[in-house]
Amino acid sequence: MAKFAIGDAVAKDKDHSGKVVRIFTSDDGEPRYALDHDGELQFLLETELKPLNALKR
């Protein structure tokens, strides 16, 4: 089950954040997310992401 939902604001680090626009399943069965980052799509695994507010602390 996916940890994040479509519309959630997430981040990989302070320079890479965005909004979840699509959720896929990798060949290994891991959730993979498409993020909209200023009009560009980024594709990241769930293990690479944190809620956006977790990095602002």
Share of helical residues: under 10%
Total separate domains: 1
Mean pLDDT: 89
Identify low-pLDDT runs. Answer: none
Structural class by SSE content: mainly beta
Number of beta strands: 5
**Which radius of gyration do the C-alpha atoms yield?**
10 Å
Number of helices: 1
Share of residues in strands: over 45%
What is the first-to-last residue Cα distance?
27 Å
Oligomer: single chain
The largest sheet, given as strand count, sense and whether it forms a barrel, is: 5 strands, antiparallel
Morphology call: globular
Query: What is the N-to-C succession of helices and strands?
Result: EEEEEH
What report would you give on this structure?
The chain is mostly beta strands. It has one domain. The chain is 7% helix and 53% strand. It contains 1 helix and 5 strands. A 5-stranded antiparallel sheet has the order 4-3-2-1-5. β3 and β4 form a beta hairpin. The longest helix is centred in the last third of the chain and has 4 residues.
